[in-house]
Amino acid sequence: MKFSLEQIAGILEGTVVGDPQKQVDKLSKIEEGTHGSLSFLSNPKYTSYIYTTQATAVIVNDTFVPEQEISCALIKVKDSYKAFSTLLEYYQAAKLNKSGIEQPSFVHESVTVAQDIYLGAFSYISENVKIGNGVKIFPNVHIAENVTIGDNCVIYSGAKIMSDTIIGNSVVINSGCVIGADGFGFSPNEDGSYSKVPQTGNVILEDFVDIGALTTIDRATLGSTIIRKGVKLDNQIQVAHNVEIGENTVIASQTGIAGSAKIGKNCRIGGQVGIAGHITIGDNVGVQAQSGIGKNIKDNSNIQGSPAFDYGSWNRSYVNFKNLPTIEQRLRAVEKNINA
Question: Which residues form the UDP-3-O-[3-hydroxymyristoyl] glucosamine N-acyltransferase non-repeat region domain (predicted)?
């Protein structure tokens, strides 16, 4: 799909410097620009590339004045970074502009489907499923019985939505996710073996939740595993049964959250964090990467370490960790002098 610079400037409320009828059909980094591509410049560190880029056009701040001749056209806007982000949103919307039900696919006769949905080929929609307006379900998606999906959701290829899951509006579920898998519940027997504890609950994803690729969210033993409004989960995260994650909390890749843990709202949790079961993490908590959390954390804390403790204390301690060999040498010297 091609767009003229004039059309793009109209979308971004910008001004073209150069030929407004030139056309672009792809986006690129400024240092990797090629003919027909559109890039942007916002970070001064990349200014030199505007004089060498092969991009057809570059979005720049309206205060930008070139210091030497440039070959590309310019689209001048108030904020080039924000403008390029807006353009990415348009681009993504164009990619998602699909509708209709592709074949082969299976939709049970009891399914309730609203208007303007897209269902990709080889998808399976089980009985008593309810699908809202504007939902995009890409190929090879499995949706089990009694699932409810709100309006304007996007479910990418290969995702599995298990029975009784409730999904709100404007939720994004990326490829390979499993929502509502059996929780990890086993009880020990006298002979050392384990018996499976049935997991009879479900998963609830509230509005504007975004789930990264290959992330798994287990169904509750009883009740619900709940991901509150606006939560953003990265790729390859494990959320166990009966966990609750508060509004607008963001969690990075490879974090594992054990059963019945409660995480507050507006938390920022780094990658590879381990969170023990049956604990409570307060609101507005920051957890640095690779931390291990085994006890309750108060509101507004910022922690690091394994087991995690106060972030400032951890940094001060780390200075000593690094210097342990030197400290040991000094201690041995002091001991030697004392003995002498």
Answer: 23-89
